[in-house]
Design a protein that fits this description.
The complex is a heterodimer of chains A (291) and B (283). The longest helix of chain A has 32 residues. Chain A has 291 residues and is mostly helical. Chain A is 73% helix and 2% strand. The chains are: A mainly alpha (291), B alpha/beta (283).
């Protein structure tokens, strides 16, 4: 029989616990939830790594797809838009690319976040761990692939649009931070709903597509304000109106992002994250029963 | 019905000063039948307009009391659907009680069915680290234990291969090695000892024995009555979410076998009656 090393004094696994039918209040649950996530940073890192490994392990080109994917998607939209209406926007490929890249992050993070809890069904029935790490890891792995997407962006800027290179590009992390918080709120909320109603996955696919077309990704916010006042009204409540415009400002125009809009959406997203966490923690005890 | 009102541990003397490793009082776990597997919105809307027949919930466990001191190993036996796994899940903190109190003092390892958390694309080594992170182990501690786990699981060169290439026996071995390597104070095992070949079974039994003797508490759910009598110093018989008998493993196993025999005969009689019925109908 092999000798196992002695248990170290400070083990993070709960050494004592008492469970009853009582449930703590929402506010303390939000704090508990985020403390749990923080204490499982490494687990989130492993989950992100596993996710990265999965996307690209079964394909011939492997990780090259992380770079190719957004480029090909951009190509499709550029061809599509040029054929059906023609565009006068200069450097249209870069114009579209600056919106496709962040959208791809939001879309994959949301879709994987929705499935993050239900796909770990077996583990949830076998082991007690903070389930909140699952949607958070999905958001984080979307962020990582977004950063890989910055490679083709850099390529485009250096090879084709060198005159658009601008120090404003360094403001990218500020815009990304707002998107990260918002994406996390959506992922946490929908992953909990999806354990009860599996329809969420189906609905989201179409809802996300509609959301993309209603957001100023293939056109600018000014264009839609001129031609479609009803859609323009919707843009006031659309975080991606602010996000796309801001990404485009720093990548394409070389100007300051919409600081006011970003600040408003940062505060809103933080509130949404708190609400989503409270909602998630309220439902968390029943996950093992329902899955 | 044979019920023992106050469980009396057979090994350790339990004065009031004794620290129980596990103390369960009046535990009840209720399942809602509204949200069963894969509900869709449509079904919920139907539920709003139509009265459902039958009860809206059922109790998987009710009024269960279990006390366990360190060094004891408790077997939980009973027919399928008696609530054995629910009890184990509650002890592991996976399920929360609908009523009653569960007190667990000590670190718990609860990979109830081995290898549940394995990620198919990751290698054996990566899966060990991932499992450790899921269990909330310190990274350094897990690295210290890595060689021990690899040696016990005995999967050789496959350590660097993705789990999807493993045989089921290799997966079970790796799962068992991880679950027991974390050196828990309380080990919860559910039907895991039946996996693997003869050599590994002997090895895993040895490891369980080692854990028992080093004053760890074990709760074991199994259908293998040999394990119950050989390994456990106490047993409880669960039927329909309630403890029918608690005490010496031999006695509890005897009653369980008696009950299953009765159930089997009833089934046979029913089958015979149905068979006779169909014969008559076809004539």
């Amino acid at each position: 029989m092999i000798a196992y090393p002695a248990m170290s004094a400070a083990s993070p696994t709960q050494a004592h616990y008492r469970t009853t039918a009582e449930r703590p209040g929402s506010f303390s649950q939000i704090l508990v939830g985020w403390r749990e996530v923080w204490s499982r940073r490494r687990l989130i890192r492993y989950l992100v790594q596993a996710d990265m490994k999965k996307t690209g392990s079964d394909t011939l080109l492997g990780n090259i797809w992380w770079v190719m994917d957004p480029l090909l998607q951009m190509l499709v939209y550029v061809v599509f838009i040029s054929i059906i209406r023609g565009t006068t926007t200069p450097d249209y490929p870069l114009f579209v690319f600056s919106a496709i890249l962040p959208w791809k992050w939001f879309m994959t993070s949301t879709q994987e976040g929705i499935q993050s809890v239900v796909t770990r069904e077996r583990l949830i029935k076998q082991l007690q761990f903070p389930k909140l790490v699952l949607p958070v890891a999905s958001t984080a792995s979307g962020l990582v692939s977004f950063m890989f997407g910055l490679i083709p962006l850099a390529g485009l800027l250096l090879l084709l649009y060198r005159d658009r290179l601008d120090p404003h590009l360094l403001l990218l992390p500020a815009v990304m931070a707002v998107q990260f918080v918002f994406t996390m709120a959506v992922g946490v909320f929908l992953s909990a709903v999806n354990t009860f109603y599996r329809d969420v996955g189906n609905v989201s696919r179409h809802a996300l597509r509609l959301w993309f077309y209603l957001s100023p990704a293939l056109y600018s916010l000014d264009e839609v304000r001129k031609s479609h006042p009803t859609i323009a009204a919707f843009e006031n409540f659309n975080p991606f109106a602010v996000l796309f415009t801001s990404y485009r400002a720093i990548i394409y125009n070389g100007t300051m992002p919409d600081w006011g809009g970003l600040a408003a959406w940062l505060i809103t997203s933080l509130v949404l994250v708190a609400l989503a966490t409270a909602f998630f923690k309220r439902l968390e005890p029943s996950f093992a029963k329902i899955l | 019905m044979l019920s023992v009102p106050s469980p009396k541990p057979l090994v350790a003397s339990t004065d009031d000063a004794t620290e129980y490793a596990i103390e369960v009082t009046g535990l009840g776990v209720r399942y809602s039948l509204r949200f069963t597997k894969k509900t869709t919105v449509r079904q919920t809307f139907q539920g709003l307009f139509q009265r459902r027949e039958g009860p809206s919930h059922f109790w998987a466990l009710r009024g269960v009391d279990v006390r366990l001191v360190h060094g004891e190993s408790l077997a939980v036996i009973g027919p399928n659907g008696a609530g054995k796994s629910t009890l184990l899940q509650t002890l592991a903190g996976i399920l929360q009680p609908s009523e009653g109190v569960v007190d667990v003092r000590g670190t718990v390892s609860s990979l109830l069915q081995l290898g549940a958390g394995f990620d198919q694309e990751l290698t054996g080594r990566e899966n060990i680290l991932l499992a450790g992170a899921f269990m909330g182990m310190e990274h350094r501690e897990m690295m210290d234990r890595l060689p021990g786990i690899m040696e016990f699981a005995d999967i050789g060169d496959f350590m660097e291969a993705p789990i999807k290439t493993y045989s089921s026996g290799m997966r079970a071995r790796l799962g068992f090695a991880i679950a027991t390597a974390v050196d828990p104070d309380i080990l919860l095992l559910d039907e895991v000892l039946a996996t693997g070949d003869q050599v590994f079974r002997a090895k895993s039994m040895g490891r369980v024995m080692e854990l028992v003797t080093s004053a760890k508490a074990i709760v074991l759910v199994t259908h293998d009555m040999n394990w119950v009598t050989q390994l456990c110093n106490r047993a409880i018989l669960l039927e329909k979410g309630q403890i029918i008998l608690e005490g010496d493993p031999e006695e509890v196993v005897a009653l369980h076998q008696e009950h299953s025999e009765i159930a089997r005969r009833e089934k046979e009689a029913q089958m015979a009656a149905r068979l006779a019925g169909t014969k008559r109908a076809s004539r």
